[in-house]
Amino acid sequence: MSNRNDIGGHAIDKGLMLRLFWRISAYYAVLAITFTLLLTIFPKLIGDMPLGGLNEFRPTADRHIDGLQDIIRNSNNVGAEQGLEAQNPLANSLHVDWLRDALSLFYAMLSTLLLMLPVSWVYKSIHNDTVHDHSLDETALVLPAVVAGIVTVVQHSLALAFSLAGIVAGVRFRRTLSDTFDTLFILTAIGVGIAAGIHSIEVAVVLTVFFNYTTIAVCTFGDGLESQHLERKKRQRKQEKIRSAAIRQGSEDT
């Protein structure tokens, strides 16, 4: 029994999709086991992981910020000696916080790379029988890490956010995607980068897992990609030209 099915004129290799499904599933299982072992051996590592950052953007976080501001105001009314004693622990904590922030950003950027590898496999597999954009595949791997770093820098500064918008507006990207479906890979990469930048890598995990399995299902049971249909039409036109040339050659010989 053939592993290929013709749906809407496009040959879909279901065997390839099935192998990709099990490959990605095994990869996620290895990641989960490795992460569990690391937390078991180094339980303090969970404090540096970019997890739970989305809670800062919820309404309950405003109350915590207001409470922190009240504490700061009250501390300003303390005597000079108490104020100096209060500043020393703060200075020591700031000295440690920068290293913790750097480690957290590194973990976030490393996580984006690990999560985008299966996305790269999906992209290559669904374009297996067509000419695909290799630069897009490489861009989708690195883009989330860059976005995570940018979000980390600008998320607490409106001025930096507007400055970044002006810089990006000054850069012109003249690149046309070969397939409209490729836009989803770019959007997924940006979403993963933003989630990692706000220290909510769990959101990036859900996003990439859902995207990978959904893309496999859609490409297996759907009508095929636009680029695949265009490639099929090109092959048909090429074959028709070859047959027409063969017919003309045969008529000239006779």
Number of strands: 2
Radius of gyration: 26 Å
Mean pLDDT: 75
Shape: elongated
**Number of individual domains:** 1
Largest sheet: 2 strands, antiparallel
Q: Flag low-confidence runs.
A: 4-11, 75-86
Beta content: under 5%
Question: N-to-C SSE series?
Answer: EEHHHHHHHH
Helix content: over 70%
Topology at a glance:
Elements: E1 4-7, E2 10-13, H1 14-41, H2 59-76, H3 80-126, H4 134-154, H5 158-170, H6 182-197, H7 201-221, H8 226-253
Antiparallel strand pairs: 1-2
Features:
254 residues; mainly alpha; 2 strands; elongated
Word description of this protein:
- By secondary structure, this protein is mainly alpha-helical.
- It has one domain.
- The protein has eight helices and two strands.
- The protein has helices spanning 14-41, 59-76, 80-126, 134-154, 158-170, 182-197, 201-221, 226-253, and strands spanning 4-7, 10-13.
- Strands 1-2 form a two-stranded antiparallel ribbon.
- A hairpin with a 2-residue loop joins β1 (4-7) and β2.
- α1 runs antiparallel to α7.
- The longest helix is centred in the middle third of the chain and has 47 residues, at 80-126.
- It is elongated, with a radius of gyration of 26 Å.
- Mean pLDDT is 75; it is low at 4-11 and 75-86.
